[in-house]
């Protein structure tokens, strides 16, 4: 038995929002679970600043923005959080920013870090002017995350110290029943810890996928520009020349960021006309951007309003009880056949709850009568269609998820210009609807969509979904559909896109985009059945989407070495009909411990959190009052860590030279 008075040591690889959230929960739970006389040393290992980490670091273009309103971003638990540890409310990004304009609480809680002004005057100016419904720059989010990190430090008892090592963890070694040694780049002596948490966040790939390697080789042969999937803030976009024709494959948030950097980032600007429309004023340095994707349309605009009625009581039709009923059977579950109808009914419930409560004049019966009938009917039943048609006269007020999913299915155009006009009208209508509170039912559906997203990990972890359902359903169609509806850009970005289209800087390609190469011309080719017979030849190609997780090709040296050594496993979902390799790190659903194939199960001293793991839908920060899955996981893991460390302290875990005490 170890000396219970010796210091305990925890090493956390990664110091971004995920690690910050874990640290906040450790601070919240020490009063109950950590003896004040016992020392705990926490080592954070990350070359990027603690709090923001790599993705949200301050050193990125001020043109890049969040796709969430300031009031919809928090790092703190609240009254909705179903957790075992104490709820410690804290300010949302909007509430924190208000303090710089004298609009926030007069006296922050004692455990909070002092509210000191950011050193960057542009960031400070934005904070002072920031409204709750504004979409902040990423640099403002960086300042908020930096403060949350310092607030977590301030909440720790004196016996708990935190040391930041501004370097990269290259490997972790050690027996399952003994100390873990975390090796650091540029350091001869490793850190020794009782437990290790891997919280590296979103990761790129060191080796591109086969398709990307082939396209890169084509580009090299013909002296063309090719950019494989990359994080927008890190991408080198100096290659495309002014006026050069560039194809962008992808129409989501990465496309938006890349377009901003290739237009405004090259000196262009916008002028607001008397009718409110935007005109793009080119600098002359922009390339011509041709964009297409599977759907062929941009992600839906984020709503620019709040609920007009009461918040829908969620979950309603797709919560623990519904999932329990699904799991009570003995046959494999198919996502589209068995699960999606319940998911769709939940999303519909959020939509109609808001419509009936906020806009009753557009319905023909009371909410109670509609709700009673709605609860009894299956989503795809004729009775449900009849109920909605009789209760909601205007088709524009009804929720048609299939039509939302693929708006260009079966639609073709004789010439590219005709399609440009069509898609501009589609985008304009989408922005207008998402900025008009008369259509606040869309926000009700959005909140239900978030609820559904948070419930799915338990179902996936059960192992009852077919392998094809996980591969093509969860990681394929559902992830794309959720992002398409819920993770779109602010409305002003789509108005800018319309201006770029009218200026001829952006050209729309269509749905089911196909990329090829023409060796004779040395060009990339792009075609779409939306405009049959039309081919675009371009001398540059940009993959406008984020890198997909792939353990065998990850840029992270620690994960790469563990994977090669067989000490961690890629998630593999298999059944007689299909095998799905997700590229995600397998962790135990109950406690997030790394599954070690050499041990035949979870590693007792290694835990992994966040994006690279198969704990899907566990985001690092969240909307307030949504019982966020990430906060629930952080609390459970923090409590388990404190209990385990309290039982098993090591005497040889001391800070090494070259670290920075915080």
Could you give the topology of this structure?
Layout: E1 8-13, H1 17-33, E2 40-45, H2 93-98, H3 121-129, H4 138-155, E3 160-165, E4 169-173, E5 180-184, E6 191-193, E7 195-198, H5 210-221, E8 225-227, E9 245-249, H6 253-262, E10 269-272, E11 278-281, E12 288-292, H7 320-327, H8 335-358, H9 367-376, H10 382-391, H11 401-405, H12 416-434, H13 441-461, H14 467-486, H15 491-502, E13 506-510, E14 514-518, E15 523-527, E16 535-538, E17 540-543, H16 557-564, E18 570-575, E19 578-585, E20 593-596, E21 601-608, H17 629-647, E22 660-661
Parallel strand pairs: 1-2, 1-7, 2-3, 7-21, 8-17, 9-12, 9-17, 12-13
Antiparallel strand pairs: 3-22, 4-5, 5-6, 10-11, 14-15, 15-16, 18-19, 20-21
Helix pairs in contact: 1-4, 1-17, 8-13, 12-15, 13-14
Protein name: FAD-dependent urate hydroxylase HpyO/Asp monooxygenase CreE-like FAD/NAD(P)-binding domain-containing protein
Domain FAD-dependent urate hydroxylase HpyO/Asp monooxygenase CreE-like FAD/NAD(P)-binding: 11-202
TL;DR of this structure?
This protein has 17 helices and 22 strands. It has 662 residues and is of the alpha/beta class.
How many helices does DSSP assign? 17
Q: Per the principal axes of the C-alpha atoms, what is the gross shape?
A: globular
Beta-strand residue percentage: 15-25%
Spatial separation of the terminal alpha carbons: 31 Å
In helices, the fraction of residues equals 25-40%
Residue-averaged pLDDT? 93
The main β sheet shows up as: 7 strands, mixed
Unreliably modeled segments: 649-661
Helix/strand/pairing category: alpha/beta
User: In which order are the strands of the major sheet placed?
Assistant: 20-21-7-1-2-3-22
Instruction: State the CATH topology of the largest domain.
Output: FAD/NAD(P)-binding domain
CATH architecture of the largest domain: 3-Layer(bba) Sandwich
Tell me the CATH superfamily of the largest domain.
Answer: FAD/NAD(P)-binding domain
The CATH class assignment of the largest domain is Alpha Beta
- Quaternary state of this entry equals single chain
Tell me how many strands there are: 22
Q: Indicate how many domains the architecture comprises.
A: 3
Q: Give the radius of gyration.
A: 26 Å
